[in-house]
Q: What sequence folds into this?
């Protein structure tokens, strides 16, 4: 693998790792699946990742067609994606994103509190929007649209796939991981990832503006 491809894989992997934030989602998954058996929790973990994979692939391969149909340039999409990711980064730094996730999970639990059996959480809220959220979907579209060749697309898909595998492993080990990490460690990790994402998003905005106005 060439240095260019390694750089692309690293950038894509880090970006999706921050956006999906598997360690931050693990406590929510553990809470939503607490009433089920071990086999049911494993089923929900696998189905959640499969649903998220399908959604992200649909947008990754359909993104170019969608942008072309809407007459949106890649530079405009790059800048808009940078702004979106920066907002998400701010939420992560100030833990607003975690609060919203927890609130969504609490609302879901409240609605299904009296159900005789655990409800299927693989599509909503775990598959969408916990794993395949607006940020990760937009970023998948961006990377695949900007890819210069099939090899570049394969590298991006490998980065996405690696993150989804990590997410699956984290979900399967959610119970022990939550107990080991604790709320303080998970919160600190989310803030660190938020700072990294802020830097990546700022670079996207700069690149988008530079390309749109043909700046050197």
A:
């Amino acid at each position: 693998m060439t240095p260019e491809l390694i750089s692309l894989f690293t950038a894509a992997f880090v970006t999706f790792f921050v956006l999906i934030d598997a360690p931050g989602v693990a406590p929510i998954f553990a809470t939503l699946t607490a009433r089920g058996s071990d086999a049911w929790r494993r089923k929900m973990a696998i189905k959640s990742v499969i649903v998220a994979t399908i959604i992200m692939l649909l947008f990754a391969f359909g993104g170019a067609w969608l942008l072309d149909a809407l007459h949106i340039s890649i530079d405009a999409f790059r800048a808009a994606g940078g702004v979106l990711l920066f907002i998400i980064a701010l939420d992560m730094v100030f833990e607003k994103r975690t609060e919203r996730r927890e609130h969504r999970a609490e609302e879901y639990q409240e609605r299904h509190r009296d159900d005789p059996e655990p409800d299927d959480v693989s599509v909503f809220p775990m598959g969408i929007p916990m794993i395949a959220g607006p940020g990760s979907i937009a970023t998948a579209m961006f990377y695949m649209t900007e890819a210069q060749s099939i090899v570049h697309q394969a590298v991006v898909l490998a980065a996405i796939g690696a993150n989804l595998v990590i997410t699956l492993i984290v979900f399967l080990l959610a119970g022990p991981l939550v107990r080991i990490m604790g709320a303080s460690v998970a919160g600190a990790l989310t803030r660190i990832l938020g700072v990294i994402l802020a830097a990546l998003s700022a670079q996207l905005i700069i690149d988008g503006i530079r390309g749109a106005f043909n700046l050197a």
Residues 174-212 form the longest helix (39 residues). The mean pLDDT is 84. The CA atoms of residues 105 and 125 lie 8 Å apart.
